[in-house]
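Bit of a strange request maybe. I'm writing a small parser for structure token strings and I need a real example to test against, not something I typed by hand. Could someone generate the tokens for this chain?
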Amino acid sequence: MNRLVAIIGPTAAGKSAAAVEVASAFNGEVINADSRLFYRGFDIGTAKPSTGERRGIPHHLIDMLRPEEGFSLAAFLNVARKTISDVTERGHLPVLVGGAGQYVWGLLEGWEVPYVPPDPVLRERLEREAEQEGAASLLARLQRLDPAAAERVDPLNIRRVIRAIERAEASEGTVGPPRKAAHPPYNNLTIGLDMDRKVLHARADSRIDEMIQSGWADEVRRLLSSGVPPDARAMYSIGYREMVEHVQGQLSIEEVARRARVATHRLIRHQNNWFKQTDPRIKWIEGGGQAGERAKSLVKQWLQQTT
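Reply from user aminoacidic:
Good idea to test on real output. This should exercise your parser:
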């Protein structure tokens, strides 16, 4: 089996920096598993690693989509598997990094995701419902249609909730959850970054403040002036719709920051549901500035054992 290192955990724990450290030390290439980083032009508000932060390490599955493009779990699994194969064929070590549990476990467990074609009419109706009644109404609908899917989906990601409803209604409940492979497709080392919840929240809050100071509002103005619609799929990343309202004069920057903090804290709780401390597959280390050194030590031992 091809070898693969996965660095996972909640947002703001230091995953991207740790992945670069590991890739730099072991001739690796980074493969992104964070849906927010797929979209071109959405840099500041997603904390996308800069060119300098990437330190010359190849990064894949970043800036590959237009803001209006959709990208399903099945599509991600297809392109990620091809990318991992390409990196391995070059004799390099694939380093998967991200906090999206569906994407990470979909790869590591070899999920097979049944294809259901998009239904534009249903999507438009559900989007109107979300605007009028709130995201909670969509989640309640999904819980009635497919309780298992409601447990898996990120309730803050309206697009994913809508897609899950779309699959459930189209299949009348016959599609079911993704099927796992009989055996893991990769010989993988999964490293989880952990932090005290209060410290993690403080880091996330500080990062939001830095985003605002670094010109997040100007980034959104440029996107809108370039023709990106306010309801583009990429605008559903945390904080972007609120920032659109701010640049349109409808919301204060303080309220944007407050809502982004609340949504990020909720995201952290959701990520912790995917990556559990009791999961024996995950090697947990302390996140933050020293996570890269700790991760490199684990990877070195693992490579020696698997050679």
